[in-house]
Amino acid sequence: MKILHLVGQREDFGGILSVIRSLHQVGPAERYQHSVWVHGDYAETRKPALDYRHGRFIISDSPSHLSIFLTSTLAFFGLRRLAKREAFDVIHAHTRGGLVVALLVAWLMRRPVLFTNHTFANRTGFYRWVAKRKRVTTVLLNPAMARHYDMTISEPRSWIVFSGCADRFLDEPLGSSAWPSTDPEAKLRLVGMGSIVRWKGWHLPIQALAKLPPEQRDRVEFHLWGPEQQDADAQAFVGELREFIEKNGLQQTVHLHGATNEVVESLQSGHFVVVASENEPCSVSLMESLALGLPALAARSGGNVDIVRDGETGVLFQSGSADDLTSKIVAILNGEIPLRSPAEIRESVRDWAASAMTEKYNRIYDHMAKLNTAKS
Question: What digits encode the pLDDT tens for the residues 70-90?
Fold first, then answer.
């Protein structure tokens, strides 16, 4: 069975490609073959390598709805030409640009399509409308997203499938460091993992640390690993972070390490993983951290509320509030938040491993292939 994922990205980053890599790795490869449609400028920088198809016009997203519609319309004709040369059993869209192409496939080519919604979008009515289209099957990432869109999940037309973390994280040795520490000289190490972009909210933990009294600030470090994207807003955001760090004398408190391939070691070097983004759909790095036994300090929004058990596997703070995050850091420093053991934290995400995600997607692909056969 051949699945074509409509992505349209120009850079090799983000959770969508991580999900597709998990599907590709878990397989079984002899039954499910995954190809990814990306923009012609795309360059692969991560492993494992994927099987790509390149389009001149396909894009993942744009602030301009008109741009998405026009480029996706042009991309549709490219996809139709591709489909004449190569048969795909399932067309699987993941981005807004990919969704428009998929809707055109459903309308003009009259074939079933699959759409995984990876965002908490503002225009909820549009996505409810999409889910009601006759030839569209919809996947949401978590119950919080279903509530956001006011959608009732009814298989096989709609599904909930978590973006699973790689199974290997569940097999790694549990980290040896745990908080609270009985050593008054010990430093609380917060870690972040993800691209340095504005929507990830990395300014919040940095602002929260600046609000700490000096004696408490000296007891905390924040280590952030993630690549700097090349678009103008991302570069401006990095500049703002560095300026704030210098202005507030946080050079010894906040450490921006850049990209890393040592994900396990980087996460296990901390006591808590920080997820500060608002309405993060389904943070893979969050689940990877919990799988390593590392508790979370996460915004109370998006998929986090379904992943983190507040006061047990982590601590939730008010989304967008540096003040509330500061208060939670103080409570952690004072040993006021007892949490589950690393082993229990790991068990909380075992059902969300990539193998479980892949098994569910394979059920969906089998269903989609039957629909496509019936249509023929």
Answer: 999 999 999 999 999 999 999
In CATH terms, 168-351 corresponds, of 3.40.50.2000, 3.10.50.40, 3.40.1440.60, 3.40.1190.20, to 3.40.50.2000
Ranges of each domain in the chain: 2-164+353-375, 168-351
Per-position DSSP letters for 9-77, written without gaps between them = -SBS-SHHHHHHHHHHHHS-TTT-EEEEEEETT-B--SSS--EEEEESS--S--S-HHHHHHHHHHHHH
DSSP letters for 208-258: HHHTS-HHHHTTEEEEEE-PPP-SHHHHHHHHHHHHHHHHTT-TTTEEEEE
pTM equals 0.87
User: pLDDT digits over 327-336, tens only?
Assistant: 999 999 998 9
User: Domain spanning 2-164+353-375: which superfamily?
Assistant: Glycogen Phosphorylase B; (3.40.50.2000)
Q: Is the per-residue pLDDT at 357 higher than 90?
A: yes
Task: Tell me if residue 304 falls in helix, strand or coil.
Answer: helix
